[in-house]
Amino acid sequence: MTDIRNFFKKVSTANKKRTRDDPVDHEEITSTAKLEQKLSTKISKEKVVSQTKTNINTTPPKKMKTKEIDPIEKKKRFENYKSFINRGGPDAPGSKTIPDGEKNCLKNLTFVISGILESLERDECKNLIEKYGGRVTVALSGKTNYLIAGREPSEGKLNKARATKVAVISEDDLLELIQTRPGDEVTPKKKVSTTSESSSTQLKRKSSSTVSKSTDPSPMKIQKQSDDESNLLWADKYKPQTIKNLIGQQGEKSCVQKLIIWLRDWYKHHGVSDEKVKAKSSFGFNRNENPAMFKAALLSGPPGIGKTTAAQLVCQHLNYEYIEKNASDQRSKKSMTNLSSDTYSVVNLANKSATISKYVLIMDEVDGVAGNEDRGGVQELISLIKRSRIPIICICNDRQHKKIRSLASYCYDLRFYRPTIVQIRARMLTILHRENIENIKEDVLDEIIQSCNQDIRQTIHSLNLWSTHGTTNANKLAAKMIEKTTNTNPFELCRLSFSDELREKSLSDKSDIFFYDYQLMPLLIQENYLQCQPHLATSNNQKRTLTNLDHLNLISKAADSIALGDVCSQMIFSKNDSWSLLPYQSIFSTVAPCSYVRGHFRGMANFSSYFGQRSRANKNARVLNEIEKHICLKVASINKQEFNLDYLTYLNQALLTPLKMASQDKGVEQCISLLDDYYLNRDDFQTIIELNTWSKTGRNLYEQLDTQTKSLLTRTYNKTNHRTPYAIVDIKKLKKSKGLMGEESDEEQGEEASIIIDENTIEEDAMIKIAKNREINKPTKKSRNK
Amino acid sequence: MSLWCDKYQPKTFNELDYRLEQAALLQAVVADGDFPHFLIYGPSGSGKKTRIKCLLHALYGDGAQSLRIENHVYETPSRKKVEITTIGSNYHVQVNPSDAGIYDRIVIQELIKTIAQTKQININEQRSFKVIVIIEVDKLTRDAQHALRRTMEKYVSSCRIILCCNSTSRVIPAIRSRCLAIRLAAPTIDEINGVLQKVTNFEGIQLPIDLANRISEKSQRNLRRALLMLQTCATQKLPLTKDQQITEPDWEVYLRDTARMVGEEQTPQRILQARERLYELVAHCIPAEIIFKGLLEELLTNCDNVLKVKITHIAAEYEHRLRQGSKEVFHFEAFIAKFMCVYKEHMLTETTGIDEEFE
């Protein structure tokens, strides 16, 4: 693409060159005169062309208006029409750069366009002319100033133009006209023949800018600068210039004030000069109250509230020079070291020359110091802070980030908060006033600010956007934007998707809800679709009410669709490359069910119970796994699922019935012996009971036991040692020991893992029992010692 | 003290109570010396693992019954650690690779290969091969099954594999063809009765024949469950009477109640209630297919024949979809909603005229 564009540019410049090389062209002639010249040459050329054309034409164009049309003429006209219908667009659309003319430079000029222009569509051309105050009419009249003729212009118009002496110009001429014509204070003539002063000066500018650019401060340059000013984004244009302009930082205890004080006193405390005051070091919670001891400051807060600006302005205010490094610079350990040495060299120079007083290093976006390229950046920054002889200001968004936390302990912590809406609003009103936009209401403005999450920069950008859209419908746009930005709560979206509001919306609008969060939304829809009382579409026969069966039918269809959506999502997640199915899933799991049951939504949108239930299922599976591991020596012929389905209920019964039926002591004894036989421990006992508890049935035998029995059970269980063929891992101890000795604990686990029990001999052989006991006790003792 | 079903589990072929012909065949295979790979399948509680135990005993003697637990940790290519527990003796290892979830292939590759590659040193005294018992083969992922199939062939000289599963439908044909498949049908009511009587004789308890019959039927021909039921009856009330209450597994009762609720009333509120209960079942790790089966069985009880066909057809469709999906409850719910529709419509057409009152 770019190649093509360049090519066209070349072509067009070549064209221009050709005209410039015209022998008629002289430097002395003023630009408009030059233009005039060119026009006349063009016209003459056109004339020749059209004359030759008319010569070729057997019939003069006047004859066209006669009522009697001879068949040849008819055919001719038909062919003309045919070619008119079939003619293509511009040859090289967009190839020419459209110049920025002065405002209303084409005022009071009337144009007629004929034929196909070289680079502009007819509408584009019309818009361009109208933009600069010109008028475009369809037919030539006495008031017409120019006929813009392109490829295949109409014969009639050319002839008429000649008759009424209207200048015939090409597209290039038009563009040049726009570029060179002065603004609206000059009254235009029928033909541009005067040499107005402004244009003459313009030429002078041109020549001066090319010839003696360095000698005089060219006005062209100034103009360019002002151009830049108007092109600037508002956010940059209205950037605070002094500290007083900062929003929400005017108070005594504001961050900026603190920063000023800290920075002002920095060289007093840390500088190399003789008046150095040793800062008192203080620790604990109040250390932030003594800013003097810090060599760096950390400004943190959400984006767009002016942290960087504040840092820069404070430096300017104190007349310090600052060096800024942000995420666009590489900030690895190595580059950071280089940086520090660089800055030191600068500082050394600075000490020699007294004119520039003091330096500050601003490290912007420190939380962006991450990844492979910036490895060790934060550590180096910390050491840099320790060594530094200049103050460092660090700026970040996320104060709670892991990396920042280590940095924060070396920094004077200044937290920026979002300004209030009122504070932002005042500033926005000034900006709008300066931009001559008055018709935005205050409440709309407030909403805009809120929708931007009180981010000043974003608010300004939004306002800027609307102003370029045309100020008249800013309110409408504002409302639209807000609608888009505020509806971001999934629960609200869920409600919305069931409501009648969405009935008329397009399919893509409906599926947008799904794409808000494609994992959460289907679950929310599934959770809540039953709460919706469907309405019949109003276009249907209104008398018919929805029967219960109809409702069920709709629900069934919705549920079907949701189930299909689940199948779809499973396909997406099981095969990595089938993300293209996502739109289908959106239809299945969000759009279709919502359309089936669309209607009155009762109550609140609930959060999906799927997550909670799934984590419960996972936990239970884990616990079951654990129990299965414990009993697997005794019940080798069983897997987890069979244990769950068959054993669990009965094991529970077998454990608890003796407690209930028999006398206390005997029952407890029986229960514990059963536990021991199956190598189950007290925790397993508890989980077995938990797994046997079902909601809303209340069949929990353990709850029916009296507390005496329960406590007796616990006491008796704890009294005796219980042999297990597996190592009981105390998680708390494990964590401690792991923290202390790291690798060693791993080795131990390996030992524990291969404890062997000989089932057959163990009952008879006392020696083995002892040996085994020792083996089991060993690790626990070890960990206790540690 | 241990539960009766463990206490009276047969340890040798001679102690078995039913399928004796098959047992004789197995014994002959072991005695012959040429021992193939086995694929033993059948419903749960039919005695698959008992047969395996007997096989191992016949192969290695008592040594195969001194068991130990071993923990193995493997690292997946994505640096995730997979822990797996095996039970084994000097002669065999029992492993359930599906414990490792989607990483079961690693288990197959690493664990089974290492075992299979080590040869027995003393061939004269022992068999020349070790046995690996893999349970829940039908739960293995396709990748793992493919990994297994080559291993089975390659190391056939040093190890034999006994596969154990409930159904062969999800075992790939390549594996099925490499094994001697042995199907164990669930014991008949009479066979279960016989076992129950035998056990009560050992315990010195009188078992009324009616109670034995009822237990056998309630257990759905699952011998393990029948024994557990019997013992629970015995702990609750000791001379056993014929009209004694038999405790069923809690989840079965809960599931049946859920299905009953759906059958009673067909409203959106009921669907919500049923959803809650289904979530509870899933949270208790009850497998989805068992829930589905239970639901259908209970729902069919109050349907006439025309409806039965329809409902079963629907159930099959939704069960298939359930296997393709991942969130079971969604599919249960879709099934219940569909059932409600069909049922209600059927009822309305049956009793036209009075349907207005019901609305």
UniProtKB/TrEMBL annotation, chain A:
SMART domains: AAA, BRCT. It holds the Pfam family BRCT. The keyword DNA-binding applies. Residues 193-219 have a biased composition (Low complexity). GO terms for biological process: DNA repair; DNA replication. GO terms for cellular component: DNA replication factor C complex; nucleus. Residues 180-228 are annotated as: Disordered. It is found in: Nucleus. PROSITE patterns: BRCT. Keywords: ATP-binding, DNA replication, DNA-binding, Nucleotide-binding, Nucleus, Phosphoprotein. Residues 101-181 form the BRCT domain. The keyword Nucleotide-binding applies. GO terms for molecular function: ATP binding; ATP hydrolysis activity; DNA binding; DNA clamp loader activity. PANTHER family: CHROMOSOME TRANSMISSION FIDELITY FACTOR 18, REPLICATION FACTOR C SUBUNIT 1. Belongs to the activator 1 large subunit family. This is Replication factor C subunit 1. It comes from Rotaria magnacalcarata.
TrEMBL record, chain B:
This is Replication factor C subunit 3. InterPro entries: AAA+_ATPase, DNA_pol3_clamp-load_cplx_C, DNA_Rep/Repair_Clamp_Loader, P-loop_NTPase. GO terms for molecular function: DNA binding; DNA clamp loader activity. SMART domains: AAA. Keywords: DNA replication, Nucleus. It comes from Rotaria magnacalcarata. It comes from the Eukaryota. Residues 34-190 form the AAA+ ATPase domain. GO terms for biological process: DNA repair; DNA strand elongation involved in DNA replication. Coiled coil: none annotated.
